[in-house]
Specification:
The chain is α+β, with helices and mostly antiparallel strands and 352 residues long. It is built from eleven helices and ten strands. The strands form three sheets. Strands 1, 2, 3, 4, 5 and 6 form a six-stranded antiparallel beta sheet that branches. The protein has a two-stranded antiparallel sheet with strand order 7-10. A hairpin with a 6-residue loop joins strand 2 and strand 3. The chain starts with a helix and ends in a 21-residue tail after the last helix.
Length: 352
């Protein structure tokens, strides 16, 4: 079942049923344009004088009831313990997740409070007027640190899957074409390296797994960040989320042709991130030393996601310039996403 088919079912049946389940009769419900590789149908629900809400309908058959409950219970836990996240709203039946069957297909439905503020891209990547951008860097680290500190104390009822349940040798062999034999070898080596790291409660727990400025909103009155879209959350290394934050930072300086300036900026940026992070929780220096490995882990996720999207769309595997760039980073063991390497071009960032 593809996206257009699901939209038709939503229009003809699902939205009416969902409206009754959640008491949304007086709300205007509008479709939010999907992003490439998106796996859900998302609507915004608006009503004058009331908080806006976000409706999510999941239709792919690669996850089960346990996975969705694990995600939503985790979000609820974070919100109830002071995490800056968009809360889950229960249906009129008192359920945080509703399962609806239609046309011999199962849909999983959930509703969230809309985060206050807006994304950076919606503000043309301009931060708060009269406030140093370093406040934003610090807050990113602080909010993430709080989520990780709460995760260290979290015991799930419905357990979410583990990073290594997906990222393993069998899945690499299944998904990546044999023509990319060196890439497959490098990915397996990376997974083996990650498996050897300490998985104590201080290092390994529930993580967001997609922590970037597309998945949180900023209240531009006070700088508060509210995180959402835990759709990819799983049990993994906390360093993975920090590596995601590192890779996000390159956007602020990616067009500067001087690699020395890029390196100096990234050092200062990540120092401020860590100051914010450590104001809420600890991260061991020996784990921070492994940052290049975890940046490679984020590259692996991007590569696998690209091949998954091609597979789900029924397309033959094709590597564009951006994907080839990522592949070269792993094949040639080029650290830090090639950001300080001679192959990097500030005219066409992260393309080969």
């Amino acid at each position: 079942m593809n996206w257009n088919e699901v939209i038709k079912i939503c229009d003809e049946f699902l939205l009416s049923a969902i409206t009754k389940l959640y008491g949304l009769e007086e709300y205007r419900i509008g479709l939010i344009s999907p992003h490439e590789g998106g796996r859900n149908i998302v609507y915004i629900c608006e009503k004058e004088g009331s908080k806006s809400k976000i409706l999510r309908i999941s239709y792919l058959n690669d996850r089960h009831l346990e996975d969705y409950l694990g995600e939503l219970e985790y979000i609820k836990y974070l919100f109830n313990h002071g995490g800056s996240v968009s809360n889950v709203i229960s249906s009129l039946n008192g359920n945080i997740l509703e399962k609806i069957s239609c046309n011999n297909h199962t849909f999983f439905v959930c509703l969230f409070d809309k985060a206050k503020g807006k994304r950076l891209v919606e503000n043309n990547y301009q931060y708060r007027e009269g406030v140093e951008i370093t406040e934003y860097y610090y807050n990113c680290g602080k909010v993430l640190g709080k989520l990780h500190q709460l995760s260290k104390e979290y015991t799930p009822v419905h357990s979410r899957y583990n990073f290594f349940d997906k990222y393993n040798e069998n899945y690499i062999d299944e998904l990546i074409p044999d023509t990319l034999s060196l890439l497959k070898t490098r990915l397996k080596e990376l997974i083996k390296t990650l498996k050897n790291f300490n998985r104590s409660r201080a290092n390994f727990g529930m993580i967001h797994f997609d922590f970037n400025d597309g998945n949180y909103s900023i209240d531009f009155d006070n700088g508060q960040i509210t995180v959402y879209d835990f759709d990819n959350s799983c049990f993994g290394y906390y360093m993975y989320d920090l590596a995601d934050l590192w890779t996000q930072g390159v956007g602020w300086i990616q067009f500067d042709p001087d690699p020395k300036k890029r390196r100096e900026f990234m050092k200062e940026y990540f120092t401020i991130i860590l100051d914010g992070y450590r104001s809420e929780t600890e991260i061991a220096d020996h784990m921070l030393d492994k940052l290049p490995v975890f940046i490679n882990a984020t590259i692996m996720e991007n590569i696998i996601d690209a091949f998954e999207v091609m597979k789900n769309n029924g397309n033959n595997p094709v590597c564009d310039e951006e994907l080839m760039y990522l592949i070269k980073c792993l094949e040639d063991d080029i650290p830090y996403k090639g950001f300080f390497h001679e192959m990097y071009s500030s005219d066409t960032p992260f393309e080969l």
